[in-house]
Amino acid sequence: MIVVLLYVAAVILPIGFDVGPLALSALRLLLLIVMVPLTTRLFSGHYGKVCPVDYLLFLHAFWAILSISINNPDRVIENGGANALEFLGGYVIAR
After folding, report:
1. What distance in Å separates the CA atoms of residue 80 and residue 44, rounded to the nearest whole number?
2. C-alpha angle 91/51/78, rounded to 5°?
3. What's the Cα-to-Cα distance from 82 to each of 22, 24, 85, rounded to whole Å?
4. How far apart are CA 71 and CA 80, in angstroms?
5. Alpha carbon of residue 14 to chain centroid
6. In terms of C-beta distances under 8 Å and separation of at least 24 residues, what long-range contacts does 16-22 make, across chains too?
7. Which of 30, 51, 69, 91 is exposed most, by the fewest CB atoms within 10 A?
8. What is the end-to-end Cα distance of the chain in Å, rounded?
9. What is the largest CA-CA distance in the chain?
10. Do the beta carbons of residue 93 and residue 4 sit within 8 Å?
11. Is the pTM of the predicted complex or chain greater than 0.85?
12. Neighbouring residues of 6: CB distance < 8 A, sequence distance ≥ 6
């Protein structure tokens, strides 16, 4: 429940900063911190049975990063990583 409140606060607050070429916001920083622990808990069964949609969403993010790396290799870290982080992070928090 605390993670959900932090997520809502991070969406509302317009805090942003740059780390090298990466533009980070409060939302992206929160998702970077909670993504790995929540994903491991999801696939270990703490949030209920793992369904095919879970796998399909992660495959979709992988496919998007792969397609960006083939078509725009100079933008894969900025665009592919940020999109996958926000897409999967929001899903894992909601799950």
Report:
1. 26
2. 35
3. 9, 9, 5
4. 11
5. 18
6. 21/77, 21/78, 22/77, 22/78, 22/82
7. 51
8. 12
9. 39
10. yes
11. no
12. 30
